Amino acid sequence: MTLDNVRKGQLIRISNIPDEETRIKAIRFGISEGEVVTCLEVVPAGPVVVSKNKQEIAIGRSLASAILVEPC
Amino acid sequence: MAGSGLKAGNMVKGKKIVLAGNPNVGKSALFNILTGLYVDVSNYSGTTLDMACGRYNGDVIIEAPGVYGLSSINDEEKITRDIILAADIVVNVINSLHLDRDLFFTLQIIDMGIPMVIALNMTDEAVQRGLGINIRLLEELLGVPVVSIAAVRGIGIDELKKKIYTARPGHAHFQPIEKINKMLHRMNRREALLVIEGDTELSECYGVKPGTDREAIYRARRERVNQIVAQVVREINKDAGIAARLGNWMLLPVTGFPLLALTLWAVYKLVGVFLAQSVVDFTGDVMNGYYEPAVRSLLSGIMSPEGVLYTILAGQYGVLTLTVTYLIGLLFPLVLGIFFVLSILEDSGYMPRIATLLDRALTGIGLNGQAVIPLLLGFGCVTMACITTRILGSDRERRIAVFLLALGIPCSAQIAIITAVLAGSGALYMLLYVLFMLGIVLCAGTLLKRFLPGRPFPLLIELPPLRLPGVQNVCQKAWGRSYQFIKEAFPIFAMGTLLLGIFDAYGFLHELQRLLAPITVSWLHLPEDVADIFIMGFIRKEFGAAAVLNLQMLPLQKFIVMLTLSLTVPCIASAMVIFKERGWREGLLIWAVVFILAFLIGGLATRLLEIWLA
Ligand SMILES: Nc1nc2c(ncn2[C@@H]2O[C@H](COP(=O)(O)OP(=O)(O)OP(=O)(O)O)[C@@H](O)[C@H]2O)c(=O)[nH]1
Ligand SMILES: [Mg+2]
Question: Which ligand 1 atom is the nearest neighbour of the CA of B24?
Answer without folding.
Answer: 21
